[in-house]
Amino acid sequence: MALNGIQTKQITVKSDGDVLFEIFRYRPHHIADMSPKYIKGVDLHDGHEWGTVGSIITWTFHHEGKQKVAKEKLEAVDDEKMSLCYKVIGGDLLEAYKTFLITVHVDTNGEENVVVTWTFHYEKLNKSVPNPDSLMDFFLSMTKDIETHLLKD
C-alpha cells in the first residue's frame, strides 16, 4: 500500500460560482455560520488579510464525532481558474499524515451547474493510516451546506 495519495471528488451546486470562490478565498470565517454542523470557527492566525498567499488560518471543525483543529497556509491562488491551494501545517490531520494539501477549484458558467472540485494530495505517516475518504465526504457535505445557505438568501 502506497503512503502517497491523491483523492479528487466533484460536487455540482446551484450557487453562483463567483460568490462561492469569494467565500472560500476572502470569507472562510463565514463558513462557520453557513455550515455550523461541521465548521465551528475559522480564524486568521497570521497574515494581514484573508485570501493572501502566505496567510495562515486555523479551522476548528467537527469530524468523526470529535472536535478537531487544522492550521493551514494558503500556498497558491489562481483567480482566473478560481482555485486555491492550502498546505496543512498543524493540527489533528498531521497526527496521521506527514503532508496534506487541499485544493479547491470552482468551475463556473454563471449561476447554474457550478462544479466544485476538492483535491487532496497527502502522504500517510504509515501504512495503517486510512485514506481520507471520510474527510472528503466532510468537505462535500460542507460545500452542500454552503450552497443551501446561499440559496436561502
Walk me through this protein's architecture.
This protein is α+β, with helices and mostly antiparallel strands and 153 residues long. The relative contact order is 0.25. It has a single domain, classed as Alpha-D-Glucose-1,6-Bisphosphate, Chain A, domain 4 (2-Layer Sandwich), CATH 3.30.530. Helix content is 22%, strand content 46%.
Short structural summary:
With 153 residues, the protein is an alpha+beta fold.
Structure summary, number of beta strands:
7
User: Distance N terminus to C terminus?
Assistant: 46 Å
Q: Spell out the CATH superfamily.
A: START domain
Amount of helix:
10-25%
- The total of helices stands at 3
The overall pLDDT, averaged over residues, is 93
Sheet with the most strands: spatial strand order: 1-7-6-5-4-3-2
Helix and strand pattern: EHHEEEEEEH
The largest pleated sheet is described as:
7 strands, antiparallel
Count of structural domains? 1
Architecture, according to CATH? 2-Layer Sandwich
Unreliable stretches covering 5 or more consecutive residues: none
Evaluate the radius of gyration: 15 Å
Named CATH topology: Alpha-D-Glucose-1,6-Bisphosphate, Chain A, domain 4
CATH class type: Alpha Beta
Which structural class matches the secondary elements? alpha+beta
Approximate strand percentage: over 45%
